[in-house]
Amino acid sequence: MTSRTPATAPETIPVPGRQPHPATATNGSDPSGRPDKPARTDQTPQITVDRHLTAAERHASLAADMRAGLTSHPRELPPKWFYDATGSLLFDRITRLPEYYPTRREHAVLTAHAAEIAAVCPAGTLIELGSGTSEKTRLLLDALRATGVLRRFVPFDVDEETLLQAGQDILRAYPGISVHAVVGDFERHLGLLPGARPAADTGAAAGAGAAGAAGADGGHGEGRGDRRLVAFLGGTIGNLRPAARGAFLRALSDQFADGDALLLGADLVKDPRRLVAAYDDSAGVTAAFNRNVLSVINRELGADFDLRGFAHVAAWDAENSWIEMRLRSVREQEVGVRALDLVARFDADEQMRTEISAKFTLDSIAAELAAAGLSVSHQWTDPDGDFALTLAVPS
Ligand code: AVJ
């Protein structure tokens, strides 16, 4: 494992007024360096960024995942690599498709119960895992701000650009709330969240190490002493297999202190026809999203996938209670991946798995939380029982 690197020192990025964020911004693009907007000094709101995943590490991790995935039988690519700029746009379009109900349902549950969530967990810090750019965040921030104790928003994502964009939007819309962005992988860096209870003897503690501990908080009193609400929304937990879900929930639970809470969004089991339709829409947006992972490999690893050579497949696996997305090779073909020095031979009709999206019941959610040392405080669904939000606290 070469990919563990100590956390880089937290960096503070000044955010000038209402200036459009350059779409192509990267690490080094400090907006204050633009000639038309002199940097302000005192009153400039700030985003603090902890980087637990550098661009180089991210690339190494992509390469390792793709090598493993393309050489396994059957082939399987991890879903986290869907979300480059194009993939994120496509996902955004998915959330507005008539067939894709989860986003709307979760939004409805949050709208109905945000105030109650804030009352049960009046957190000073809202942490959002896999934050993307969601407006659901705002429902939570609004409700928490109304309790008067909210001070800080911590978006956590693998993609720094997404984080900075989301962070700047929030900073402008919520004066007085600080933004502490964390670039990391929620399967590896949970122990480094700001305000984490120092873990004594867990694997997460090893990950936090000395450098991590410094990066995780930025001062003792700042992080602990107030409640943290950790939101993991959208049903993304369903992209993890059961063992990985268990490890994820345990890592979170291990660093929870009394008063902290997890708000978990999970899609529920329902008529398989509706489930399959949600992952195989008539407009073909999900198909394009699925194939986009091939573009990512082409660009990042110098591969020559022909996207027309792969057909989108969505199937319900009742035994495992998950939807599977696959790419089916429409013909026998060879694909070169230069950066991996690899040629992958596909048989005609060979199917490569690209995502699982597990569906739960209220009881199965509670059981998985309990196994990780978390107990259900509240559980809500939309009126049709399509999607669940669960508020869980340390047992
Ligand atoms: C963003 C992971 C919740 O699993 O439903 C949407 C991703 N994949 N359509 C999901 C997705 C295909 C989505 N999550």
From TrEMBL:
Molecular function terms, GO-annotated: L-histidine N(alpha)-methyltransferase activity; protein methyltransferase activity
Region (Disordered): 1-48
Gene3D superfamilies membership: Vaccinia Virus protein VP39
Keywords attached to this entry: Methyltransferase, S-adenosyl-L-methionine, Transferase
GO annotation (BP), single: ergothioneine biosynthetic process
Binding site for L-histidine: Y100, N239, Y279, E355, I356, S357
Pathway info: Amino-acid biosynthesis; ergothioneine biosynthesis
EC number assigned by the record: 2.1.1.44
Any single Pfam family the record assigns to this protein: Methyltransf_33
Top-level enzyme category: transferase
Domain Histidine-specific methyltransferase SAM-dependent: 63-392
Highest taxon above the source species: Bacteria
Reaction catalyzed: L-histidine + 3 S-adenosyl-L-methionine = hercynine + 3 S-adenosyl-L-homocysteine + 3 H(+)
Sites where the protein binds S-adenosyl-L-methionine: G130, K136, D157, D185, F186
Subunit structure: Monomer.
Function per UniProt: Catalyzes the SAM-dependent triple methylation of the alpha-amino group of histidine to form hercynine, a step in the biosynthesis pathway of ergothioneine.
Family listed: Belongs to the methyltransferase superfamily. EgtD family.
Stated name of the protein: Histidine N-alpha-methyltransferase
This protein's encoding gene: egtD
